[in-house]
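mind reviewing this stuff:

——
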Amino acid sequence: MLVAGAHQDPEYIAGYLGAYRLLVSDLLLLTMSEEPMADAARVRAVVEAVGR
């Protein structure tokens, strides 16, 4: 399981070593995904980056 904050830059979660962490994980748990930490657009950007 990979735990990441939705307030983080999507490239930080999906890029560099994040891609490896995603590949070896069975589940991504996004924390801090509510206002004021992250809005719906930020959460959507993280989900799209992970999907790529």
